[in-house]
Amino acid sequence: MPDATAPLPSARTSYDEVPYESHPYPQAHPSRLAVIATLFGLTPPAVETARVLELGCAAGGHLIPMAAALPNATFVGVDLSARQIADGRDQVARFGLTNIELRHASILELDDSYGTFDYVLCHGVFSWVPAPVQEKILAVCARHLSPYGVGYVSYNTYPGWHMRGMIRDMMRFHAAKFAAPAERTRQARALLDFLAESAKPGTELYPALLKKELEAVRHQADHYLFHEHLEEVNEPLYFHQFVDRAGAHGLRYLGEARVATMLSGPLGPDIEKALKLLATDQVQTEQYLDFLRNRTFRETLVVHARNVPSWQLRPEPVGRLHIASGAAPVGTEAPDVRSDAVVQYRGPSGVALSTARPLLKAAMAVLADAWPATVPFAELLSRSREQCGSTEGGENDARGLAAGLVDSYLGSDLIELHGVPVVAQRVAGERPVAFGPARVRAVQNRPIPTVRHELARLPDLERRLLPLLDGTRDRAALTEVLAGEVATGRLQLERDGRPLHDPTEVRATLTAILDQALASLARQALLVG
Fold first, then answer.
1. Average pLDDT for 206-214
2. What positions belong to coiled-coil segments (predicted)?
3. Would you say 353 and 408 are in contact if contact means Cβ atoms under 8 Å apart?
4. So what's the pLDDT on residue 448?
5. I need a labelling partner for 95 at 20 to 30 A (CA). Which of 10, 268, 497, 504 fits?
6. What residues have CB less than 8 Å from 219, skipping those under 6 apart?
7. How far apart are CA 462 and CA 468, in angstroms?
8. Do β-strands 100-104 and 74-79 pair in parallel, antiparallel, or remain unpaired?
9. Among 280, 245, 45, which Cα is nearest to 132's?
10. How many CB atoms sit inside 10 A of residue 22's CB?
11. What is the mean pLDDT of residues 50-60?
12. What global pTM score does this model have?
């Protein structure tokens, strides 16, 4: 295998000039991919000890938090940008990780020396590279996936990208007059603003469609806008074309990372009935769904062709999974989990679920007590039965609860299913410990990953507090360090709208709010001890 410590060549790419801010993608975590393979009747490799390869890893923002959370797994990232790989290696060294290697290499250079991997990830690359590299990505999935491994590839799709591609063409035409990436991006934004002001929806269809697409593009970060819309290559394709090309490499379609997008039910019974007449298989069904939804982007999972998924979801596989829920009951009264009274729960995105089933209501209470950590299904079943006083048979309870969890997982964000446990502290200990990558990234003022493989958005006090949580400081020591930050002007505290400077007032205020800040970090899955 290539030497990961070798000096980096000096050849530059556009990603060296404008680095792409890499960060966690929860839907592309092997734990989530394993869930989908499990639900569809396959037996994916154990995530805890998996070998994971990411093609186009940038600075490792997706891989590094996984390596920190899964010390018995092995991670390899490959990227053509020397600048981003150097940044990623610096992060790895700061975290002291030994189970991850970031390699400066072209995807075209991957050979048998890399070995096999249980999960191959390729996010935000396929549509943005020439056809030979696209074919190599599929070849890597076919050649380097272990027998029951899962590959993840994201790409832009038609028909949605026909309209978005038109806006990209407009931006590239205007930005081509300028050389510097920053100026090209600024000018592209100026054109978007001009178009948005001009596209006033009226009776004509074009202005309405243009306005909708412009709003989807205008507020993206500069690095995203530059690489998504101003790069030379951006080649969308239809979903069925991707499946055919994957099939030519001996790969079979498994499903989507966001599995709910595979369902036709949300469009209504008439559409669902018509699709059953039009489509002969799952691939055709989803292609028609793309037509109906004007889809622009997919995150597709593939497996070796000999592994045949069953898309008829059954509840039994849930018994091998770990469950989480951040949903809360609507209203101020605690739900009666022993009655048949209907209770409504609302998830983080606002989607609601109503149920009268005592066992499912009890399970929601157990999950709320554990949040943001997961609960293994067997434990969830046992504790839920105890709370609601169920007298049903164990098998009936297990099947009923699993079916309710799957329905909620597919229909909303109220239930999460994970292939491995999410271990996070609900309550800060005497000497709190924060997730290692989060501590380092907070110091660097960069996006902060959580144990749940998401990004945390923190106010200044919590961002300053986070790096201090290495297990060596109790609350008194934390207060003293933060008071020093206030004294030097690096942290500002206010009371009733006025800045605090008096040391006595500062310490009193910090003492009063420290537990609240720690509780906020715990809720966001940033504490591990």
1. 67
2. none
3. yes
4. 95
5. 10
6. none
7. 10
8. parallel
9. 245
10. 26
11. 96
12. 0.88
